[in-house]
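JOB MANIFEST
job_type = single_chain_structure
chain_count = 1
residues = 124
[input]
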Amino acid sequence: MRVEDSTAAWDEQAGLHPTQSLDDTVHQRVRLGILTIAREADRVEFSFLKKQLAVTDGNLSQHLKVLEDSDLITMEKGYAGRRPRTWIALTREGAQALDRELRALRALVLRLETPRPAPGPSEA
């Protein structure tokens, strides 16, 4: 058995590759940032997200729309004094999606940190 074959056998024992569990909607850098920041607070203001994630208004708005359309966040518009504000909050589905994403990332890290079995003498 070649090294590639032993690697494939190890992969089969471990199940699907952890990247198969990553959610494209959640995993995108800005959207993952939005979800994690929203997880840290009950709700977060648009301009705070914009500054923390170093994105433009338009870029942030597009990512928020994707997350809102996926029911991962809610957006509430209102005023702080005379200034219009938009607040973002994580939904229960958003929290669950973030938890799944974090589990997949942990599995990926564990996979990389776990030594693979060395090929036996007849496998080299």
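[summary]
The first helix runs from residue 3 to 14.
Helices lie at 3-14, 24-27, 29-40, 46-53, 57-69, 92-113.
exit_status = 0
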